[in-house]
Amino acid sequence: MVTCLGYQSELSKIELAKPIEEFKKGAKIAPMLISSIDHIVLTVRDISATVDFYTRVLGMREERFGEGRIALAFGQQKFNLQDGKSSRDIVAIARQPTLGSADLCLLAAVPLIQVIDHLEHCGVTVEVGPVRRTGATMPLRSIYIRDLDGNLIEISEPWSEEVN
User: Fold this and answer.
1) 111 and 76 in one domain?
2) Among 32, 83, 105, 106, which residue is least crowded by beta carbons within 10 Å?
3) How many CB atoms lie under 10 A from the CB of residue 44?
């Protein structure tokens, strides 16, 4: 067991030595400890209605796990859903789970114009966009909608001068 930045780790001292030593010498950037997002938990008013919205409007897949838990899967990620009225037997939850407090950016699997057409067909209003935004790894062309709980959902595609 090795203590790293105040936390216990099973990593060997050799595995930790270089990045930690660089960090201790005053490096401005901590060693990379996170590689990606696995899932995000959304607190929702009505799980069934939320599943309908995200599967029908955004094409996500409903998944059941644990003891009656429900998730919305897409790509290699998922949104776990929790009821805003009760936490049931969930071991760890946010300190103040709040409806409508999420602001998420999702990358479209199809051209944004097809997303806009589909949203219109589903009766979902595009509040803003298309507009240029800065993503985690590239410039984006984005639109914004709201889900049933008021969460802001940004749907994006890579920015392309040809499209804009």
Assistant:
1) yes
2) 32
3) 27
